[in-house]
Amino acid sequence: MRITALILMAMAAISAIAAQPPAAVVEQPRPFGYVVGDLVTQRVLLTTSEHDFDPSVLLPIQRVNIWFERRAPRVEATADGRRWLIVNYQLINAPQTLTTITLPAWDVPGKAGGTQLRIPATSISVGPLISSSPSATAVELRPDREVSLINTAPVRAQLIAWSIALGLTLAAWLAWLRWRNWRDSLDQPFARALHELRRIDDSAPEAWQALHRAFDQTAGRVLQTETLPSLFERAPHLQQRRADIERFFSQSSERFFGAGLQSNLVSVRALCRDLRQIERRHAQ
User: Fold this and answer.
1) 6-57: per-residue pLDDT in tens?
2) In the CATH scheme, what is the code of domain 19-129?
3) What gap in Å lies between CA 45 and CA 209, rounded to an integer?
4) Is residue 51 within 8 Å of residue 86, measured between CB atoms?
């Protein structure tokens, strides 16, 4: 007898569960931030991938409880082909303090075989128009939303990659700069002369001859004091040191073809260094 009774109870429970309307897909209103007069909206999905529910009747305008009055429901179709049942409720009461109220559950009757959709209840918080106590709302404050963690591993990997790329670029640029300076020391006359002067004493004849060769290569011919104007025609950027160049040629002529060494001689190294700077600026 006990076993039979248990079986009958189980069958009754199963029948009761099966008789309950299926839960609908509902977009409930936001749960906070309302005062008297506001509209609260529920959206019920009628069209899904499994079925297309057709309500037999839309609920009338009526008062639901002491807080809500239902407005006229309507059915809207969206661009994706789905249909939604839109139900608006207006708040018709104002609490004295911030209060959580319940929008009750209800059923949508269908045309096909008396099927129904079950719309679950939902809770919202309603605030007074004027609060007599500022601290009265503290207990109803909603908790802070949890901040989602950001995966910084890809950003760190990109930062490392770009840092390596920047380092390689700077290294390549410095290498190119050194190579250019080395190439210039082989190709440009005063750069070559300055390179030679590093191994020669400033007063040695070879130092003067190295600077003479630089002048000859710049002018494209062998120069003497009388032919110096051709140098400035060929390289007008050397005009700014014309007086020092003419003084060098005058002292060089006296040294090699005249009375010999003079006092207050030109510094061959300093003159060559200045001419090299002019040469570099002109080549850029």
Assistant:
1) 555 655 544 444 445 566 788 889 888 899 989 999 998 887 656 677 777 7
2) 2.60.40
3) 99
4) no
Q: What are the residue ranges spanned by the domains of the chain?
A: 19-129, 188-283
Q: How are beta strands 83-91 and 116-119 bridged, if at all? A: unpaired
Structure tokens at 32: 């906070």
Instruction: Quote the pLDDT of residue 17.
Output: 42
DSSP string, the chain: -HHHHHHHHHHHHHHHHHHSPPBP-EEPPPSS-B-TT-EEEEEEE-B-SS-B--BS-PPPSEE-SSSEEE---EEEE-TTS-EEEEEEEEE----SS-EEEEE--EEEEBSSTT-EEEE--EEEEE--SS-S-GGGGGGGPPPPPPPPPP--HHHHHHHHHHHHHHHHHHHHHHHHHHHHHHHHHHHSHHHHHHHHHTTS-TTSHHHHHHHHHHHHHHHTS---GGGHHHHHHH-GGGGGGHHHHHHHHHHHHHHHHSS---SS---HHHHHHHHHHHHHHHH-
